[in-house]
Amino acid sequence: MLSSHDALIIVDPQVDFFPGGALAVPEGDAVLPAINRAIETFAERGLLVVVTRDWHPVDHCSFARQGGPWPPHCVRGTSGAEPHPDLALPPLFTMVHKASTPDRESYSDFEGTGLGDFLRARGIRRIFVGGLALDYCVRSTCLDGVDAGFQVVLLIDATRAVNVHPDDGDRALAELVAVGVRPLEGVPA
């Protein structure tokens, strides 16, 4: 059962992480129906919806040409950094930007964003997390959510893994469950 102490966090639903994007997550587009249902459920109840995004400068340290592991992606001011056009954003939501300086990588939505304090100031005690990608930013956000003292629910139908190594997604899920994250398919009423 949802309450006023719950918030929804949609991690990096950006064009570059979907099929055809610069750093596409396999089957990434399969998360959109589940994410949109979750957004609708939270918005109908007047509950907090947070959408996060990578907001990289052109010379971000995670890019291969700077020695990082990834191709350029989610460069601020580009269409790839924008939310997917099929994302059904509510009229009121909070946008959080991360990894916005050249020399700092941040997979977690809590790192350097003030998100934990923002949520606590609004009386949030439990967060529901979905988005891309399970084995990177979703994983890190869930782990930091637990460390920050929140109850964390992972919407497993609303996330997919990059799977650089074939079992990365399964390992991430097992790690999250081991620290107390609750996997759930669909949002409760």
Description:
Helices cover 24% and strands 20% of the residues. It is an alpha/beta fold. It has a six-stranded parallel beta sheet, sandwiched between helices. 41% of the residues are buried.
What labels describe this entry?
189 residues; alpha/beta; six-stranded parallel β-sheet; 20% strand; globular
Strand order of the largest sheet: 3-2-1-4-5-6
Shape: globular
Q: Over the alpha carbons, how many angstroms does the gyration radius reach?
A: 15 Å
Contiguous runs where pLDDT drops below 50 for at least 5 residues: none
End-to-end separation = 6 Å
Please state the structural category.
alpha/beta
Count every beta strand, where a strand is a DSSP E run of 2 or more residues: 6
The number of helices is: 4
Report the β-strand fraction as a percent range: 15-25%
Main β sheet profile: 6 strands, parallel
Helical fraction: 10-25%
Order of helix and strand elements from N to C terminus: EHEEHEHEHE
Average pLDDT, to the nearest integer?
A: 97
